[in-house]
Design goal:
By secondary structure, this protein is of the alpha/beta class. The protein is built from five helices and ten strands; from the N terminus they run E-E-H-H-E-H-E-E-H-E-H-E-E-E-E. It has a single domain, classed as 3-Layer(aba) Sandwich (Dihydrofolate Reductase, subunit A). Helices cover 22% and strands 31% of the residues. It comes from Streptomyces niveus.
Length: 192
């Protein structure tokens, strides 16, 4: 059975973006060492417009073949004129207000959790939950794995990883990797 993995960049204090949701400042920590890790372990998480200039558009997907984004996350790509940010994967965008400007992007306006349960029963690689906080909260019970890229930065306030109510949920640490720039990537699996 496929799993849903929330692959997310966060500050030390657990925010995925500033109070407006902006998180582009995390990219300054993607140095040569960190980029090599992403290319080796998670090449499909690099958006298509970034893969092409890096000369890695030919790399096969290793872990994910489907990406799910929230409306605001997808709008980051739209704002720079990119209508198919993950052309190398099946692309789903959870939104009740958008219409797809690209035939390669499927807008899901209904029950996204039910759709994820259906996707999990299909054959294939995993499902990459790209963001953001509201979508992660909506899919909280479906998240099987967390891949938390923690960058050495304190925001003080902002958009949390999950925009949800208080709910203690245990995850088991599966791996921990540190980088010379101070970043840490931890992988957790949900305890069932």
């Amino acid at each position: 059975m496929r799993k849903l993995s929330y692959f997310i960049a966060v500050s030390i204090d657990g925010y995925i973006g500033d109070p407006t949701g902006e998180g582009g400042f995390f990219t300054r920590f993607v140095d040569e060492e960190f980029l090599a890790f992403l290319k080796d372990e998670y090449p499909e998480t690099l958006p298509t417009p970034g893969r092409q200039p890096l000369g890695i558009d030919h790399l096969e997907n290793k872990r994910f073949d489907t990406v799910i984004q929230g409306r605001r996350t997808y709008e980051v790509a739209l704002d720079i004129g990119v209508t198919s940010p993950y052309a190398h994967m099946r692309q789903l965008v959870a939104s009740r207000s958008l219409t797809s400007p690209d035939p390669a992007v499927e807008i899901v306006s209904g029950d996204i959790a039910a759709l994820v349960r259906k996707l999990k029963r299909e054959e294939g690689l995993g499902i990459y939950l790209c963001g953001g906080a509201n979508l992660a909260a909506e899919l909280f019970d479906e998240v099987d794995e967390l891949v938390v890229k923690t960058y050495p930065l304190i925001l003080g306030s902002g958009m949390p990883m999950f925009g949800t109510k208080y709910a203690q949920t245990e995850f088991a640490l599966e791996s921990n990797r540190t980088f010379g720039n101070g970043a840490v990537v931890r992988t957790y699996s949900r305890k069932r």
